[in-house]
Specification:
Length: about 325
């Protein structure tokens, strides 16, 4: 019998967090990325619940039905790690397998790095953990001649204005350009032409994706009409601040068992910066048990290839959440 997904608001770390949960057993906590929601884990919630786990997917800080503090500084990596630590306790548990995709991956990696007592194992998806660099990330990009990298555009009010103009189009377009099913010439670029914006100048109808229904798009669109995009963009506005805050962690490695999952067509790992991070992953996570690169999948791997992702997560959880 398929377990039901239930929803509630949980007070954690000074905010109200909306969580979706399914099943009973050892806790698996799943952190989504941008521009996403708990709903990005819809396939994993039921699969993990049916496999004997308590699967929980929150709307992360600033997203969906979770609180969105006004202060940009309230979106640092330390705030997000604190949210996950507090959520484990609020759910009546002492430990959890932490899983993160996209922006949720750095949260998961840092949860493992900072609180190994709470998170005995970690799964990162699409974004490899990176060694702390010698200078702030935005400065590093500027020195490398990459001032059109999307991190810079996301610092600006123009990004919010572009994305908020039509939330349903924004979500459809971003999911489309990041998908493995999309033709190569239409796939995501991490560099932004200011005249075209992140979404591109053309406002033509976005082609359908085989793994994304109109009803799925409706869920995302309704949430972003309500929340706007500012909360999620504020994560990017803390990139250099995160580097400063993480100074005490310089040189630290993740000791727990770790797993990395991504689509082999994901722009995050096919670009030069991502390829290098993927190659270096064993050096920062020496107990990495595998790099699963799913053929034909793009950036939204848990939505594009749910069966393969579910199988990998369940196997890893069974091994490390006895």
């Amino acid at each position: 019998m398929t377990a039901d997904v239930t929803h509630r608001q949980v007070p954690v770390n000074g905010i109200e967090m909306h969580v979706a949960e399914c099943g009973d057993g050892p806790l698996v906590l799943m952190c989504h990325g941008w521009p996403e929601l708990w709903y990005s884990w819809r396939h994993q919630l039921r699969a993990l619940g049916a496999a004997g786990f308590r699967a929980v997917a929150p709307d992360m800080r600033g997203f969906g039905r979770t609180s969105a503090p006004e202060d940009v500084a309230a979106y640092s990596i330390f705030h997000n790690v604190g949210d996950m630590v507090a959520l484990v306790a609020a759910l009546g548990k002492k430990r959890a397998l932490i899983v993160g995709h996209d922006w949720g991956a750095p949260v998961a990696w840092h949860c493992a790095l900072m609180r190994p007592d709470v998170f005995p194992a970690v799964v990162g998806m699409s974004v490899p953990h990176r060694r702390r660099g010698p200078r702030p990330p935005l400065e590093t990009l500027r020195r490398g001649g990459k001032s059109d990298y999307y991190y810079f555009y996301f610092q600006e009010p123009a990004a919010e204005a572009e994305f908020s103009r039509d939330p349903r189009y924004t979500i459809a377009r971003i999911l489309y350009i990041g998908a493995g099913d999309t033709a190569r010439e239409d796939r995501m670029s991490l560099y932004v032409d200011r005249a075209q914006g992140f979404l591109g100048g053309s406002r033509t109808q976005v082609p359908e994706l085989p793994w994304l229904s109109e009803a799925d798009l409706d869920v995302f669109a309704e949430a972003y009409r309500g929340s706007g995009f500012r909360g999620g963009l504020n994560w990017y506005r803390n990139i250099d601040r995160n580097w400063e805050l993480a100074a005490p962690l310089d040189g630290a490695t993740i000791a727990q068992p770790a797993l990395f999952i991504a689509g082999n067509l994901d722009a995050i790992i096919t670009g030069s910066l991502g390829r290098y991070a993927l190659e270096e992953l064993e050096n920062v996570a020496p107990n990495l048990e595998g790099k699963i690169l799913i053929e034909g999948a793009g950036h939204w791997v848990q939505q594009e290839r749910p069966d393969e992702v579910n199988a990998a997560l369940i196997s890893f959880a069974r091994e490390h959440l006895a």
